[in-house]
Amino acid sequence: SGTGAMSCAQWAAMIEADEAYAGANAWLKFEESFHELFDFAHLLPTHQGRAAERLLFGELGGKGKTFISNTFFDTTRANVE
Predict the structure, then answer these.
(1) Under a CB-based contact definition with an 8 Å cutoff, are residues 26 and 18 in contact?
(2) Do 79 and 46 form a contact (C-beta atoms < 8 A)?
(3) How far apart are alpha carbons 65 and 13 in whole angstroms?
(4) Burial of 57 per CB tally in 10 Å (0-12, 13-18, 19+)
(5) pTM > 0.70: yes or no
(6) Closest to 22 in 3D by CA, of 2, 38, 43
(7) How many Cβ atoms from other residues are within 10 Å of residue 31's Cβ?
(8) How many other CB atoms sit within 10 Å of the CB of residue 60?
(9) For 15, what's the count of Cα atoms within 13 Å in the CB-facing half-sphere?
(10) 41-50 tens-digit pLDDT
(11) How many angstroms separate the CA atoms of 15 and 19, rounded?
């Protein structure tokens, strides 16, 4: 999902990165950058927005709850309900 072009440096970093396991250098760099930007104790990356919505709304949602959304994904409503 999403659009955007990647720079040569971004492609090079992705190709050189070792993504084999969560303790890889790429993961550690990502986690460090995340904590520099955000004041959250926990980080749970997802592979796409729909999966993130499913986790978020599954935890925060429920009967009688209301969420405002721009419904980027056709699954948003199903995830909320």
Answers:
(1) yes
(2) no
(3) 42
(4) buried
(5) no
(6) 43
(7) 13
(8) 10
(9) 7
(10) 999 888 788 8
(11) 10
